[in-house]
Amino acid sequence: MRLAELSERSGVSTATIKYYLREGLLPPGRRIGATTADYDDTHLRRLRLVRTLIQVGGVPVAKAREVLRHVDDESLGRTIRAGAALWALPRLPEPEAEDDAVVTARAEVDRLLEELGWSTARELAPLSPDHRSLVVAVASLIRLGYRWDARLLAPYARLMHQVAVHDLDNMEEYPSEAERVEAAVASAVLFEPVLKAMHRLAQEEESARRYGLS
Amino acid sequence: MRLAELSERSGVSTATIKYYLREGLLPPGRRIGATTADYDDTHLRRLRLVRTLIQVGGVPVAKAREVLRHVDDESLGRTIRAGAALWALPRLPEPEAEDDAVVTARAEVDRLLEELGWSTARELAPLSPDHRSLVVAVASLIRLGYRWDARLLAPYARLMHQVAVHDLDNMEEYPSEAERVEAAVASAVLFEPVLKAMHRLAQEEESARRYGLS
């Protein structure tokens, strides 16, 4: 398809598509003349992922380029390929201080991973920004005086593991490896708000069941 | 305890405590002299909740006051009391347009709630900001071309219901009604980052189990 059709089908303006091409977020089309190029479904899919990252996820252009470089690296196995892309997503800044709360939180998270038998998570802990995010989140609970330890965290972690099982089952329904990796990255950005809203709705529902509405 | 001790034990400066008192975020202490007042554990707990809302949740002062007014309204039943406080928390702006994606998303969310038998969530749907957040989140998936329907959403919603069951079980361990409502609000702000980080870690773990690390 030509640029105009790519714009029409993706809902992205031709000016924005040209910008993404210049920035290397979208691979060039196949040249079919001095000023025209041909695009295909892979461009359509890539545009969807770029919009997800930039417009929904608020990922800066340079970061998006880094995420996509991992998505496109066919030399990597699937876990590392999707993992590297996800690890490149921007996060909240980490606290500079290794205060008592962080030390306690790290010990509880380590105990949690051991109890759960999550051996990869334990092995990757020193590298994983997700491990650090969990330690930081638990530290802020502890700092405010809420007592959250491995025993209280474990049932939540088991449920989130079941969520991850559904994620990967859904991902496996995509026909190509490129689409599977793209879907893993897109859903990490897009699915968090869905889970968060479901969680709140479920709290209301369960509260009404236990205590009524009045 | 005096102001100095309240500051010491809460880790909040006396200047900030005075500011919270002036803004009505913290109830006044019991007067015990012309210039001194006595504070107790309820003040300590309230300070913790105020810090959670303002420093962690990024809630503006006026909003925090509104949330706390609901928390303190003993005339309300527990579901409504915690619910009203949670509904007052700030959210992402809603899209102005009722486009096709929003219409489709609302129909799928309605089907989902019916299939799940979440009767309160259905009854409160026209009022609930959480229902609207779910519709908006599903609409953004649909708009990007990811096909998410009630059938795909249902297993996630069932898992988030189990998460909510644990939330309420934990909440019920607090000794007083005031503490239970406070814990519900604080955990809504503080626990989302924990669940999000656990979800990502679980994805890595499950991916490594299925496909290995190389």
Automatic annotation (TrEMBL), chains A, B:
This is MerR family regulatory protein. SMART domains: HTH_MERR. Keywords: DNA-binding. One of its GO terms (molecular function) is DNA-binding transcription factor activity. PROSITE patterns: HTH_MERR_2 (PS50937). It comes from the Bacteria. Coiled coil: none annotated. Pfam families: MerR_1.
